[in-house]
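Ligand: uridine-5'-diphosphate. Inputs:
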Amino acid sequence: MKLLYRGKAKTVYELDKNHVIIEFRDDISAFDGKKKDVIAGKGEINARISSILFEELNRNGIPTHYIKFEEPNKIIAKRLEMIPLEVICRNIATGSLIRRFPFKDKTVLKKPIVEFCLKDDRYHDPMINEDIAYNLGISNEDEMKKMKEIILRVNDILKKFLYDKGIILVDFKLEFGKDKNNKLYVADEITPDTCRFWDRETREVMDKDRYRKDMGNVIEYYREVLRRISA
Ligand code: UDP
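Predicted complex:
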């Protein structure tokens, strides 16, 4: 299989002209790749979690790249031209939001915040606006408006789906890709590496913050997320 791209936690192979195979690896990293480890079993768990969440989005009519799960740690997806933006949606203030703005940690936001960031570790993924994105040749106002509409719909769908499974969706990141007709699709992954998940009853952290903050039991909590959403 032809290797197309190797990222920090996933590898993308060409399947055919219009499809890719995405392999979820056991690698984990944080702080722009400065902290790195291998957590045995994470790749398989994340491939399964991502598949379940993308299936839920597909069922609800959201255009996504996801086609099917491939045992044990891969998915087959549409081959797209990726937009180098990280689109973040937040329901509760925490993480980088409270480091950059005077929000109190863990406050429920009056309405979801959508943020666009440039996907570029050299610049530490800075927040970007329509004019900067346009001048960099990355996107444009109309496309960013569509991404914002889609991520807010995704937020509604996933928030409800997860809440029913005992999980609070605190915030998450999406990446988008385009097909040859410039149609937008949600792509990449939706996993505890790219979302913040808290236990609905205890507010325990069930996501990559356990790794970022050395809280321990990373894989145990990822496995628990998978167990709950599989039920
Ligand atoms: N996120 C991500 N990749 C990034 C940056 C953020 O998947 O490169 C996710 C992160 O897991 C969280 C949300 O986006 O669910 C918001 O992250 P935040 O801006 O608070 O940054 P962090 O605290 O990770 O520095």
